[in-house]
Amino acid sequence: MLIAVIGIDGAGKTSQAHDLAGWLRAWDWPVRYVPNQTLLPVRRALDRIAVEDGLRDHTELLDADTMRLLAAGARLAQLHDALSDPAPVTVVDRYTYCQYAAARVLGAGNEDVLRRLNRELPTPGLVLYLDIEPEEARRRIKLRGVDDESLEFLEGFRDAYRSLPEYGGFTHIDANGGFDDVQARLREAVRAALAD
């Protein structure tokens, strides 16, 4: 079974997906965990090129559509490699739906291209959508101190997820509570799916 953990920034995707995979391993399930690989090395290289050209950073060098396609291509390669020899259970931190929602909220015109690019990837057996209030997501983002997102962006991102045609098939997990409470809800959803 392929299990995808998705949601807006600050929902807790990475921590929850990682712990979910560890819990499954503790129950002797052969599990593959696929973390989210960022484009950090590519962005740093593009930032250097931008500075050489007298620009601030990669956002002034390449448009959002191009960056989204670069990220999607890198993620496709990572997922293709990870899923080419699947374990009985594979837990993925983020999936294609995150790209589609991001394209919608950013107003990028490349969702169709992203969907066509990703069409080789399997449809997850379980999509765990961490549903969080944007205010709580913003509070968590500020606490981690790595980046920041506006409340308006987070509200738009949530709306973008809700507008996806696949949204009705997601398993909704209330992600507003404490870490352990959210993890318990995830585990219950996975128990039910694996029992089928």
UniProtKB/TrEMBL annotation:
One of its GO terms (molecular function) is ATP binding. One of its GO terms (cellular component) is cytoplasm. Its EC number is 2.7.4.9. The keyword Flavoprotein does not apply. Transmembrane segments: none annotated. ATP binds at G7, I8, D9, G10, A11, G12, K13, T14. Residues 7-184 form the Thymidylate kinase-like domain. It catalyses: dTMP + ATP = dTDP + ADP. GO terms for biological process: dTDP biosynthetic process; dTTP biosynthetic process; dUDP biosynthetic process. Belongs to the thymidylate kinase family. Phosphorylation of dTMP to form dTDP in both de novo and salvage pathways of dTTP synthesis. This is Thymidylate kinase. It comes from Actinorhabdospora filicis.
